[in-house]
Every structure is written in C-alpha cells, then in structure tokens.
Design goal:
By secondary structure, the chain is α+β, with helices and mostly antiparallel strands. It has five domains: 4-128, Rossmann fold (3-Layer(aba) Sandwich), CATH 3.40.50.140; 137-184 and 459-565, Topoisomerase I, domain 2 (Orthogonal Bundle); 189-249 and 389-454, Topoisomerase I, domain 3 (Distorted Sandwich), CATH 2.70.20.10; 256-382, Orthogonal Bundle (Topoisomerase I, domain 4); 654-692, no CATH class. Helices cover 34% and strands 24% of the residues. The protein has a six-stranded antiparallel beta barrel. Strands 19-20-21-22 form a four-stranded antiparallel β-sheet, with no helix packed on it. A four-stranded antiparallel β-sheet has the order 23-24-25-26, with no helix packed on it. Helix 5 (130-157) runs antiparallel to helix 17, helix 5 runs parallel beside helix 18 and helix 9 (271-283) crosses helix 12. The longest helix is centred in the N-terminal third of the chain and has 28 residues, at 130-157. The relative contact order is 0.10.
Length: 692
C-alpha cells in the first residue's frame, strides 16, 4: 500500500514522476478529462444559471474505476494535472469523482518535469483554484451555447457536419476578408533605378535616392527618363558618408504562439504537429542511463518570464562556451509582457541549458530533435549579449541626381552566434561591405538599370501569420490556436494553397450566414472583449455566470431570428467537364473529408469516384507517351508522376518543366529553396539563377 496517490494526465509523465518521488508515492494517469458535457445534447441548463451537466466520458469508466480503487488505499491524494486552466478543471473533476475536498491541499503544479521541480512542488501543495476552474468552465459553456445552437441550424440550412465556434468563426472571417482584399487590389506601377559603382576595384550597389534635393518616388517610365537624362557621364562624387554603430537585440524566449510561428518558418511544421512534439518533449524522453527526463518547460504559455535559476545556469554555460563578452550587460532591459499575458508559467525553455541538442540527439526522433534544437537555441540566444553592427550609408551625386548605398558589417555577433529569429518578410542580416570612402571622392558607375514594378496585394495568411494576428488582436489563447486552425480545415471552410489559407465556397456561405444572423460571433472587437472578460473570471473580478448571462441575452434573440428567417442554401455540384466512364452521366466535383474529388452525378445508382488530376503540361520524360500530373502523398506532400502509372513508374518531388537542359538535353526541374525556386538539370550541373 502506497502512502500517497498522485494523479497526472498522461502515462509518460506518470512513469517519470513516480521515479522521482520514490516508493511512498503511486503515480497514475487519468488520460486527460474523466468528466465532460455529453456529446449527444447541449448539457447546459440555460434556465438555471447555465448549470453544466457533467457525465463520465465514454470509455473512461475503467480508468475512473482504477483511480477510485487506488484512492481508497491511499492516505492522501495529490492532483497534478497540467498547470493551466484545463489542468485545473481536470483536477476539479477528479476531486469530485474521488471525493477529494477541493479546499484541502490536494493540488500540485510544476512547470517542468525534472527531479528538483517535482520535489519542490510537493513541498507547497494548495487547494484547487476555483477561479481557474470557473474560467475554463465559462469557456466550455460559452462554446457549447454557440456550437450546439448554431451548428444544427447550419446542418438544416446548408449541409450536415458543419460547425461554428467563437474563435474559428473569427479566423474564417479574417481569411475571407484577406481574400477579398486580394481580389479587389488594384496594382500601382512604380520604378526603381539601381547602379553598380566601382571604387578602388571594389564593386558595390546603390539605388536612386533623390533629385534636386528632394526625395521622390518614381511612378512612370517618363519620370525615370527624366532622372536618367539628368545624369551626365559616369562619374559620381561622394557627397555624404555616415557611419554608425547599431545594436541588435535577441528575440525573447518562446511562448506558445511564437513557437508555432517559428516552427512553421524554420521547420515547416504545422501548428498541430508543433504542439504534439512539444508535448512529448515536455512529458519526458528516455535518455539512456539518465532515464526519462522532461526536456522542456510547459508548452502552453503566454509569458516570456524566466526563472532566476534558469538564468544563472544559462549564464554559466554561455561564459564557459563563448566567454564573458557574450553575457548581456547590466543595461539590458527586459521586454514587457504583452498586455493580455496571464504570466501563469515561465516561457518555453529547455529544462537544462547544459543538455545541449547534440547530447540528446541519439534519443530523439528527427522532428523531436529539430524542435528541441529550436527551443534550446532560442532560449540560449535570448540570454546572450546583443549583436553590434557597423553601418555605413553613402550618398553619391551626379548633377542633380543622388544615389544611396547602404552597407553593414557584423562587428560583434553576440547572440547571432547561436540563433537568429526568422521572419515572414525579410532576409536574415548578413555582411554587406562598402569600400572606404570620404566626401569628395570620385567613383564610377558601371551599369545603371531602371526596373518596372507593381505593388503586390497583401499575402494570404499562413498558419504562422494567422496565429500572430489572432494573438495581436487578443483573440483566442495559447491552447486554442492549433485546434482552431485544424477545425476550419477539417470542416472544409478553407483549403491550403502553397501553405496559405484560401476560403472555399462552403466557407464563404457559412461566413455569410453567421455574419447576417450572428454578427457578434464574428465581430473582432466583441470576441476580444469576451476573451478579456473570461480572463477577468480567472482573476476573480467577475462571476462566470454573469459573463455567460450577458452574452446569452443577445445571442438568444439572434437565435430566434435565425430559426425563423434563415433560408435553406443549396450548394450545387460544380460540373467536372467530363462524363462517367461507367454510366455516361456527367461527373461533378464534390467536397470530401480529404478535399475535392470527382463523383458521378448519377449517385447513388452509380458510385464511381476518382481523384482530380492536375496536368502540368509536360510529357513524361521517362516513357515519352504519358503526361506528368500533380499528385499528393498520404502526408499531403505534392509530387509528380506519369498518368500511365503503373505501366510507367516515373516519379519526382521536383516539378518537371516543359523545356530541356540546354547543355545535355535532359529534364529540367524546379527545385524549391528556402527562399524561392531554382531551375536545374537532373543530369548535369546546369543551374539557373534562383527566383524569389
């Protein structure tokens, strides 16, 4: 008989924690929630203070029975679910199921699964925090009221299997509005003029800056001609040299949203995959003789705070590996937390800086290693000195025309020696050296080249960009982003094109109905205000029932109007432009769980279906008979193959082109780079300049 029973969420954690605590402790896993609202009904009594009706989750009976048996044998029960609202609610449900007094010191929380952190947390158990429970319960009830009232309406009026939710509806709105911006965008013409200059046999580039002392933008070929005709000869005079020293500070450690964004940029991970891998790293990895160890701190957080112990350990590591110069000075100011940050936990960091990525690589899967390396490098860099850049700006003049050249050199790399934050928009900083120049120097221009451009529409949202925008608007919380993006794709409201969200016809129909009948649900300010009120519940400054009641009064009237006035929408199948080879009826496009496919319009009499084939206009380079078509692997990765498969087994991850290599006449393909694509030959060393 064990003296103490500890209940955590997952078996992986249970195994690790039991080893740390010793023989007096028995650690068991609840496998997440044991009670929840029923799936078959709303489970919320709107007439009696929105009282939730909780039941044992189907399939959890044996787990609960095992926990109850263990609880009867234990002197004391500790509830050690995750350290967030969801974890607090799980602990509360367990307390009710196991007859544990919620006001007793039964709740234990820890931000990392290490021996010291676990043992320290058991020295300070506390009662269950009912403010956290109420905050989670309020969100759960609110989402039930929205989902279980609007979804059945959509089933009746549009099609079965649809859903509507607070955060997912706002995310859908943002994607649709961005698509409208793109369609309505009117490009504007503009020009640039660049020149290659020569000074002391060193080449550098400059761009047109001003004319007659005025900074002007070029919008037509006529304006460009006016500038070029004002340049006499190819000699320019240096009229201004500016040298400055600039500091570049490291990015703060990861929070949930920034981890999802950076993993998308640098590792090409979807938000769902990032969170799954982070959960594994948090719960513990078997490290040989060291046993199972949690490698990172809790991964659902909106705080950039770091413990003093972690700071001290990282400082010792940085000094030993890089030297004292790489430690930040006393003048480094910590960035303020975002206004809506709850600051419940630390930032996402390695549990020990000393456990560098290469030391654990053999125990991790490829993707686990890549994510751990990203988290480790980001944290270590955040604790290092700022980089120092020497910058130089030079203005050169010919008559009334001034060109400007900018250069920079990394004087001291600081944190950049370990890690540089990625960006959706810009290129990482590199040395761009200019020759030494002083005012009055004469330099030569070699090639002056004007170039016509057109302004581009705003880009479609990637997962990373959408998460960042939702976070900036105060909509959703760390735990909601990944499931929200997953839901709008599963429902068929959006699709991914080149890793960017595109709304589907179904998504636009659902959005228009919600916009017309439930305007508050997709109102950005209303949703952000609602999130703020739910955070106030967590802080104990407002009762959760008041928040729900305030929302439901208006929502109920919207619901009654929608029930009476919403008309049935018929989504017509789009003709596929070919006939069924089985019965001769027209084929149509349909939307399925895994995207669009072709089906016979004579369903159910004819059940013929087939995938949509996308030809790329290239004859198969292998058999010379078939056409190359675009296909998708089981993991949704695009590849190219012959349409005569299996007779012809030609396959390529790179897109073949309809022209041959000018050197050896073999196939040319488009090779994807980190930034853009490059055309190259599959047989010889022929390559073309990369294109962005």
């Amino acid at each position: 008989m064990s003296d103490y029973l500890v209940i955590v969420e997952s078996p992986a954690k249970a195994k690790t924690i039991e080893r740390y605590l010793g023989k007096k402790y028995k650690v068991k896993a609840s496998m997440g929630h044991v009670r929840d609202l029923p799936k078959s009904q709303m489970g919320v009594d709107v007439d009696h203070n929105f009282e939730p009706k909780y039941i044992t989750i189907r399939g959890k009976g044996p787990v609960l029975k095992e926990l109850k048996t263990a609880a009867k044998k234990a002197k004391k029960i500790y509830l050690a679910a995750d350290p967030d609202r969801e974890g607090e609610a799980i602990a509360w449900h367990l307390a009710h199921s196991l007859d544990v007094d919620v006001n007793s010191d039964c709740r234990v929380v820890f931000n990392e699964i290490t021996k010291d952190a676990i043992k320290e947390s058991f020295k300070t158990p506390r009662p269950i925090n009912m403010n956290l429970v109420d905050a989670q319960q309020a969100r759960r009830v609110l989402d039930r009221l929205v989902g279980y009232n609007i979804s059945p309406l959509l089933w009746k009026k549009v099609k079965k299997g649809l859903s509507a939710g607070r955060v997912q509806s706002v995310a859908l709105r943002m994607i649709i509005e961005r698509e409208k911006e793109i369609k309505d965008f009117v490009p504007e013409e503009y020009w640039t003029i660049k020149s290659e200059f020569l000074k002391d046999k060193q080449h550098f580039e400059g761009s047109f800056w001003s004319m007659n002392g005025e900074r002007i933008e070029l919008h037509s070929e006529e304006e460009v001609h006016n500038v070029l005709s004002s340049i006499k000869g190819n000699t320019f005079e240096v009229v201004s040299v500016s040298k400055k020293e600039r500091k570049r500070h490291p990015a703060v450690p990861f929070i949930t949203s920034s981890l999802q964004q950076e993993a998308a940029r640098k590792l090409n991970f979807r938000a769902k995959k990032t969170m799954m891998l982070a959960q594994q790293l948090y719960e513990g990895i078997e490290l040989g003789k060291e046993g199972t160890v949690g490698l990172i701190t809790y991964m659902r957080t909106d705080s950039t705070r770091i413990s003093d112990v972690a700071k001290a350990e990282s400082a010792s590591y940085i000094e030993e590996i890089f030297g004292k110069d790489y430690l930040p000075g006393d003048d480094r100011k910590e960035k303020k937390q975002p206004g809506n940050a709850q600051d419940a936990h630390e930032a996402i960091r390695p549990t020990s800086t000393l456990r560098d990525p290469n030391s654990v690589k053999e125990f991790l899967s490829r993707d686990q290693f890549r994510l751990y390396k990203l988290i480790w490098e980001r944290f270590v860099a955040s604790q290092m000195a700022s980089a120092i850049m020497d910058t130089m700006s030079v203005d050169v003049k010919n008559g009334p025309v001034v060109f400007r050249a900018n250069g920079s050199k990394i004087k001291f790399p600081g944190f950049m020696k370990v890690y540089v934050e990625g960006s959706d928009d810009s290129v990482e900083e590199k040395d761009n050296l200019l020759p030494e120049m002083t005012e009055g120097d004469q330099i030569l221009s070699k090639d002056i080249e004007p170039a016509q451009h057109f302004t581009q529409p705003p880009p479609r949202y990637t997962e990373a960009r959408l998460v960042r925008t939702l976070e900036e608007m105060g909509i959703g919380r760390p735990s909601t982003y990944a499931p929200t993006l997953d839901t709008i794709q599963k429902r068929g409201y959006v699709s991914l094109d080149n890793k960017r969200f595109v709304p589907t016809e179904l998504g636009e129909i659902v959005f228009e109905l919600i916009e017309e009948f439930f305007p508050d649900i997709i109102d950005l300010e209303f949703t952000a205000k609602m999130e703020h009120e739910l955070d106030n519940v967590e802080e104990g400054s407002i009762e959760w029932i008041k928040v729900i009641d305030g929302f439901y009064r208006d929502f109920e009237s919207y619901l009654e109007k929608a029930e009476a006035e919403m008309e049935k929408v018929e989504i017509k199948d789009e003709p596929a432009g070919e006939d069924c080879e089985n019965c001769g009826s027209p084929m149509v496009f349909k939307m399925g769980r895994y995207g669009k496919f072709m089906a016979c319009s004579n369903f159910p009499d004819c059940r013929n279906t087939k995938p949509i084939v996308k030809e790329i206009g290239v004859t198969c380079p292998s058999c010379k008979k078939g056409n190359v078509i675009e296909r998708k692997s089981k993991k949704k990765r695009i590849f190219y193959g012959c349409d005569r498969y299996p007779e012809c087994d030609f396959l390529s991850w790179d897109k073949p082109l309809p022209r041959s290599c000018p050197k050896c006449d073999h196939v040319l393909v488009e090779k994807k780079l980190k930034k853009g694509v490059q055309v190259q030959c599959v047989n010889c060393d022929y390559k073309e300049a990369p294109q962005s």
